[in-house]
Automatic annotation (TrEMBL):
Residues 34-130 form the MPN domain. This is MPN domain-containing protein. It comes from Aureobasidium melanogenum (Aureobasidium pullulans var. melanogenum). It holds the Pfam family JAB. SUPFAM superfamilies: JAB1/MPN domain (SSF102712). The lineage of its organism: Eukaryota, Fungi, Dikarya, Ascomycota, Pezizomycotina. GO terms for molecular function: metallopeptidase activity. Transmembrane segments: none annotated. It comes from the Eukaryota.
Length: 130
């Protein structure tokens, strides 16, 4: 939550005035860059649309390139119990088995994050999302 507050404060400092962007010598750029492959994006979109009107979730596979860069190359859907406004993964055994199968097939990716849908709500962040 502190990170979001700092980002919002920095964005407010960028607007409007004659001076343009405010300079603060104490601000450190620790933003993260996430690269998402076309395959991963299409699979997330397809999964999200197939689940309407329920929320769906899945895990993102890829690599941490460095401290500030994540590369997502693929995703897989998770079995879950969802409603129109929330989703909860219910099978940690499934995740473990999927990761074991990926290793057995020689895929080097690891879980780098998760995604979930907000059907009909647009792109808003709940306190859980942040």
């Amino acid at each position: 939550m502190d990170r979001l507050s700092r980002m919002l404060a920095a964005a407010q400092g960028m607007g409007g005035g004659a001076g343009g962007m405010q300079q603060d010598g104490n601000v450190v750029d620790n933003s993260e860059t996430v690269y998402i492959s076309s395959l991963a994006l299409l699979k997330m979109l397809r999964h999200g649309r197939a689940g309407v009107p329920m929320e769906v979730m899945g895990l993102m596979l890829g690599e941490f390139v460095d401290d500030y860069t994540v590369r997502v190359v693929d995703v897989f859907a998770m079995p879950q119990s969802g409603t129109g406004v929330s989703v909860e993964a219910v099978d940690p055994v499934f995740q473990t088995k999927m990761m074991d199968m990926l290793r057995q097939t020689g895929r080097p990716e690891t879980v780098v994050g998760w995604y979930h849908s907000h059907p009909g709500f647009g792109c808003w962040l709940s306190s859980v999302d942040i």
